[in-house]
Design goal:
Blueprint lengths: L7 E4 L5 E2 L15 E5 L34 H7 L8 E6 L5 H12 L5 E5 L4 H11 L6 E5 L3 H11 L3 E5 L16 H18 L2 E6 L12 H5 L2 E6 L6 E9 L7 E7 L2 E4 L18 E8 L2 E12 L8 E4 L3 H14 L8 E6 L11 H13 L7 E3 L2 E2 L5 E2 L4 H10 L4 E5 L10 E5 L2 H8 L1 H5 L1
Parallel strand pairs: 4-8, 4-9, 5-6, 5-7, 7-8, 15-16, 17-20, 20-21
Antiparallel strand pairs: 1-2, 1-3, 9-10, 10-11, 11-12, 13-14, 14-16, 18-19
Helix pairs in contact: 7-8, 8-10
């Protein structure tokens, strides 16, 4: 058969292509199926036979796409119900925060419903087994494998046929057809692509553990976060038992939920009501402390802000913060200096939170300002008081979202009075709400003795 300069021949059965005509397909070995296809279409990409035809959207089966619970309520809250078959989840966090402990707990709970494959590239199976014994996470259908090759991992998947696949971690795996060292940009991209294809084709819920860099971002190419379906960030101070899980990206659920956990020697425990961890129990009020209500996602959390303003003989006063944004602390101090005539700039200032919680929401500004003012004047705030509001550079107290939800949480924990921005005084039974326009008015209400002296 004559062939034009740009034509090719394609098998009608499997799509195999060749530059010359042959009577038998070199791929599927079928006779008489090779036909002239002409020039490749789609800009050089030749169409091939599809694995399954396109269907009307109303005929698509959605039963297999429903989320299944992991058994860990706080994780299911963040995911929006659980893991989705074929969905790929990326869990990132600092070293030692408890990622492997969390996933081992999840694997043991999920194994009650079906087989789970836990592939570790950082530890031996014996080390993982010892941790599982300590956590009480031994399950008959939980399979362990120590592998660093994607090809070997695929073999384990064929043998086990898991409903949940956990890979710890994606930076330790390597793809044989990619250049570079494990953890490099090329290897991470190829490994992630192979695991995502495996998850989608087999309908396996897959969890990938990712390392983070010094600045807290996920190591590897940025494309890794775009490829996966869910990105979770596991946070916590290694000196504290509190851990927080938040969704950065979630194709199957909300991204404004947060899960709270307590890391103990016997495992990781979900905390459905963590507010009590961020308060100090004391008999009498202490100067320099103020309680606020922050929103982590849609969950209100009661937290205590502490400040210490102390005289110094140093030419450059010290500034130290823990759990608070140092830039916002400096801004609130400047507003107190300029708008409230409180000379705190020449003193050492220490500001922190209780329980290791990180408060980055602007609604904490008012509580921080009252704590700084109380420490500077050595006057305690009234018992049972909470403060919520953002402080502007002009000294105004700005409105924040979810005030009623915050006040309901404060009332539930026994607080009786709240200082909030004006026009945000939504009535909540059992708690007195006081609206203020600026920081000076808030100081007069919270520290009346200061004005009388």
């Amino acid at each position: 058969m004559a062939r034009s300069a740009k034509s090719t021949f394609r098998c009608a059965e499997c799509g195999w292509t060749t530059l010359k005509w042959v009577g038998r397909c070199g791929e599927c070995q079928a006779w008489g199926t090779v036909e002239e296809a002409g020039a490749p279409a789609w800009g050089g990409v030749e169409p091939v036979r599809v694995g399954s035809p396109a269907l009307p959207i109303s005929e698509i089966d959605v039963e297999a796409a429903h989320a299944s619970a992991t058994g860990l309520d706080e994780l299911d809250r963040v995911l929006g119900g659980g893991v989705v078959p074929g969905g790929v989840l990326l869990l990132a966090g600092e070293p030692g925060v408890g990622k492997s402990t969390l996933l081992l707990e999840v694997a043991a709970l999920y194994a009650d419903a079906g087989p789970v494959l836990y592939v570790t590239g950082e530890e031996s199976t014996g080390q993982v087994r010892l941790r599982a014994e300590r956590l009480g996470a031994l399950a008959p259908k939980l399979y362990l494998a120590a592998e660093t090759s994607v090809a070997a991992l695929a073999g384990h998947v064929d043998a086990v046929a898991p409903g949940l696949l956990i890979v710890d971690s994606v930076q330790t795996m390597s793809a044989p057809n990619a250049s570079g060292v494990p953890g490099g940009v090329t290897q991470v991209r190829e490994v992630a692509g192979a695991l995502i294809r495996l998850a989608k084709e087999r309908g396996i819920a897959t969890v990938l553990v990712g390392h983070v860099t010094k600045d807290g971002s996920i190591a590897g190419p940025r494309m890794l976060e775009h490829l996966v379906d869910v990105v979770l960030q596991f946070e916590g101070d290694r000196h504290s038992q509190l851990r927080m899980l938040r969704a950065v990206k979630n194709r199957y659920g909300p991204t404004d939920e947060i899960g709270c956990f307590e890391l103990t020697d016997s495992g990781i425990i979900g905390l459905p009501d963590p507010s009590g961890l961020f308060l100090t129990r004391r008999n009498e009020p202490v100067p320099g402390t103020c309680v606020t209500v922050t929103l982590e996602g849609r969950r209100p959390l009661i937290a205590e802000v502490q400040a210490l303003v102390a005289p110094t003989a140093l030419p450059q006063p010290r500034r130290a913060t823990s759990g608070l944004d140092s830039a916002r602390v400096a801004m609130v101090m400047a507003v107190l200096e300029r708008r409230a005539n409180l000379r705190v700039g020449a003193s050492d200032v220490y500001a922190s939170t209780v329980g290791g919680v990180r408060l980055g929401e602007p609604s904490v500004d008012l509580a921080l300002a009252l704590a700084l003012a109380g420490s500077h004047t050595d006057l305690p705030l009234p018992r049972g008081l909470v403060a919520v509001g953002e402080v502007g550079l002009a000294g105004d107290v700005r409105a924040v979202s979810g005030v009623q939800r915050r006040l309901m949480e404060a009332q539930r924990l026994g607080f009786t009075k709240a200082i909030v921005p004006r026009h945000s005084e939504e009535p909540v039974e059992g708690i007195e709400t006081i609206g203020v326009d600026d920081l000076g008015e808030a100081l007069r209400l919270a520290l009346p003795a200061k004005r009388r002296s």
